[in-house]
Structures are given as C-alpha cells and as structure tokens.
Amino acid sequence: MRFIDPHIHMTSRTTDDYARMREAGIVAIIEPAFWLGQPRTEVGSFKDYYSSLVGWERFRASQFGIKHYCTIGLNSKEANNEALAEQVMELLPLFIYKEGVVGIGEIGYDDQTAAEDKYYRLQLDLAKETNMPVQIHTPHRDKKAGTIRSMEVCLEHGVAPHMVIVDHNNEETVKDTLDRGFWAAFTIYPHSKMGNERMVEIVKQYGSERIMINSAADWGISDPLSVPKTAALMLEKGISMEDIHKVCYQNALAAFGQSGQMNEADWMDNNTVDQRDKFSDNSILRGGQTPVVGEINTSSSATDSNIIR
Ligand SMILES: [Zn+2]
C-alpha cells in the first residue's frame, strides 16, 4: 500500500526516518514552511530556509525514493514580528512558483493577534491571485473558534473551500470544516491529542470524503510513521481499503494536486534511486558507504511490525 504524508517537517528529521518511511510505503510528502523552534531575526534566514525546502531537502528525499513537495508561507508565530514579516512577504513571490511548491502554507492563527490576522489575509490574497492551494495551521488554544475564524476569513477573501486544507482538526472541529466544504486534515501525534485510535473513530463516523491524515513530525516528540501506522489500525478496526486509500493517499493528492505541481506519475513512473547523485557537490553518503542504486526495496529488514505491506 502506498502512502502520502501531506504535512511533515523533514528538515528536522534524520536519514533513518527517510529510510523507514520509504520502507513503510510512503512515496510522497509535503513539507510546509514553519517555525523552527526559535524566532528568526533576519529575512535572509527565511530565504535560505525556503531555498532548502525546494533544493537540498527535495534532493535528500529523492535519495530514499520519496518525492518531496513543499508549501511556502510565513507562519503565524513569526507574523508577529511585523518589521520582518513585511520583508518575508516580499520574498514569497520569488519562491511560490518554484518546482515542487504545491501551496501557500502553513499559515493561519496561533494566538490570533492583529498581526497574525493581517499576514494571514495578505497570504490568502496571494493564494487567490496565483490560484494556489492553502495549507492552514489552526490554533491549539481556542481551537474551535480559531478554526471557524480561519475558514470565514478564507471565504471573505474569495478563496474557495476546495482550495483550502484545514489542518490539526479534532472531534470538535471536523463537522464545521466538512460542512463548509473545506478539506479536513488531522495530525496524529504519538501519546497525545489526536491519537490514532481517535482517528479511526472519526473515519467511522464521518467517512473518507475530504479527510486526510498526517504526522506533522518535526523537532518535537512526533512520529514520521503516523500515517502508515494509523492505516494499519484502520484496517484492523474494519475500515475498508478504499477509505484508507482516500484518507492516507488519494485526498492529499487531489487537494495539493490542484497546484499542478504534484502528479502521481512523479513517483509511479520513477521508482529508482541513485545515491551516487549529488546536490551542489554534496552527497548523502559518508566515507566508504555503498550507494543504493536502482529499484527501491520496500520489503527488507522491516523493524515496525504494525505496518501494512
Ligand atoms: Zn507543521
């Protein structure tokens, strides 16, 4: 079974993660631009970060047979530094047309401040002008009101619901999101919040239309195998393969594919890697290692038993 993880921050992850993800069937991922754990102080830091999302990280994923896409945007936390935010806004148009960019994201509200509102709206206008999908980060505090507000503001700016992926939903927000015609994404964190047991119940109750799951794995405690592990649990709990395929693959492809930058052929037609490849003269290999060249082997040395194959 093939999977897409439509929200994962690989910049913070290791090559072991890439190898395990591919082995578990993850063929494509989307890495939203986000906050790095401490605030950036210069616009150049944003520029280099965006460059790595469309450059080095994309290459690194390819070396493990995973197609890497990203969304580019100014995250809500850093929107609160207005002097810097102004400069970042000028940078965005230089990156959103690059190969592999499938949307504006992750944007939205954190503390729901006036500055967050201002830059969220400006980025929605940019998405509208460029006809790009939007990946919304909904606030963890005051979640329900913040999620509804995020969607209302999209509508106010003329951004169509089918172009918007609303992330970090839970039982309290899913109905509002689906009723308004938006895509409802769920982040599966280990030991907390939206665990995979709860996700199974949501799919049982709401079905698989416009629902997708992701790991949002980053530098915090998170699991890059959340998508395949939740799929395995869904199967065990009697959810159909068709529904699992939609929630763990097809809906992400349909939503972000609207960018014109993400096609199934990108990974179906090319299932080989060549670890002799280099990016700006840099390789992922270290002294004396043997490069993997050729077909991806997804069946060997499995370490996680609860993965569907
Ligand atoms: Zn994120």
UniProtKB/TrEMBL annotation:
Residues 290-309 are annotated as: Disordered. Belongs to the metallo-dependent hydrolases superfamily. GO terms for molecular function: hydrolase activity, acting on ester bonds; metal ion binding. Residues 296-309 have a biased composition (Polar residues). This is Hydrolase TatD. Keywords: Hydrolase, Metal-binding. It comes from Pontibacter arcticus. Pfam families: TatD_DNase. The lineage of its organism: Bacteria, Pseudomonadati, Bacteroidota, Cytophagia, Cytophagales. InterPro entries: Metal_Hydrolase, TatD-like, UCP005295. It comes from the Bacteria.
